Amino acid sequence: MTVCQFAKAPFGRFIEDRPQLLRRINELAIRELSQARDHMVLLGRRSADEKVATFLLGWRERQVALKGLSDTVPLPMSRQDIADYLGLTIETVSRTFTKLERHGVIEIIHGGISLLDPVRAEALAAA
To answer: Residue ranges per domain, the chain?
Structure first.
């Protein structure tokens, strides 16, 4: 990742001549705000099963954007990191992964999961 910092006034002048860039920045900001809102709802109103299914499908979407459609979802995050992100305990995340695997929704593989039944995962995430 590379981070750049710009002074406000010169950047304002720069962007005035590039309305398409300003439009794109606004689109990205709106998308980020929408994702933040969705994450707050996820944390506050969803069951552990719904949280984990939503997380897996969201991570799969990110992977699709980078590498194309695949039912294998790499998970570079530890279960503790996933638990922290979802507002759950590591034990709950592990139990939920096991439950989803037992019900044939996912298969736990080295370094990630294989999404065996995306339709059921989507139904659970939409609940």
So the answer is: 7-45, 47-127
Q: Which CATH class is domain 47-127?
A: mainly alpha
- Sorted by sequence, the CB contacts under 8 Å of residue 60 that are 6+ apart come out as 70, 73, 115
Locate tokens 């593989």: which residue? 109
* Phi, psi for 72 (deg, rounded to 5): -90, 125
Would you write out the chain's pLDDT as a tens digit for each of its 127 residues?
788 888 999 888 888 888 898 888 888 888 888 777 766 666 667 788 999 998 898 888 887 777 766 778 888 889 999 999 898 999 999 999 999 999 999 999 998 899 999 899 999 888 7
Q: Which pTM value belongs to this model?
A: 0.67
Number of H helices, E strands in the chain: 6, 3
CA 39 to CA 47: how far, in whole Å? Answer: 13
